[in-house]
Amino acid sequence: MVNLRPILLIESDERHGALTIAAFEEIALANSLVVTRDSGEALEYLRRHGRYSERALEDPAVVLLDIELPGHDGTAVLREIRSDMHLRRLPVVVLTSSREEHDLLACYELGVNAYVVKPARFEDFIEVLKQVGLFWGAINEPPPAASLCPGHPAG
């Protein structure tokens, strides 16, 4: 039996979070979806700190990151992920409404795996979420869990 890793959604907009859940349910994506609402909570989850200190050792299959977050924006989260030797290999997909070139360039310079602009039309948004979920949750082969990597405190 294949052990499917969870998908981490870092999304402050509750409506977008609910749409993501609905889209993944519609395609019967088997991965669980973990939703965090801000950069602090997301980094706690990824680093197994605070309320997430007892979570399973597996890393997410992918991090779906909105760059428009309260407090530190998503590029700060991406910078933290890429600078952490235990997290830097995690696939990160930016899901944003920003079409700003400086956001796009900043994310790619920080090592994002994909930059997806959220469509304005509801039906298109759902379709994009389905495609993202299927590719990153079911088709893509993620790197080994950090806990299995040499030098990781849990490995």
Search tags:
single chain; 155 residues; alpha/beta; Rossmann fold; 5-stranded parallel sheet; 5 helices; 5 strands; globular; disordered C terminus
Protein described:
By secondary structure, this protein is α/β, with parallel strands linked by helices. It has a single domain, classed as Response regulator (Rossmann fold). It is built from five helices and five strands, in the order E-H-E-H-E-H-E-H-E-H. It has a five-stranded parallel beta sheet, with helices on both faces. Helix 1 (14-26) packs across helix 5. Residues 148-155 have low confidence and may be disordered.
Shape: globular
For the termini, the CA-CA separation is 22 Å
User: What does the largest sheet look like?
Assistant: 5 strands, parallel
- The helix-and-strand class reads alpha/beta
Mean pLDDT: 90
Proportion of strand residues: 5-15%
Seen as an oligomer or otherwise, the chain set is: single chain
CATH architecture: 3-Layer(aba) Sandwich
Structure summarized in a few sentences:
The chain has 155 residues and is of the alpha/beta class.
How is the secondary structure organized here?
Elements: E1 7-10, H1 14-26, E2 33-36, H2 39-47, E3 62-65, H3 74-83, E4 92-96, H4 101-109, E5 114-117, H5 122-139
Parallel strand pairs: 1-2, 1-3, 3-4, 4-5
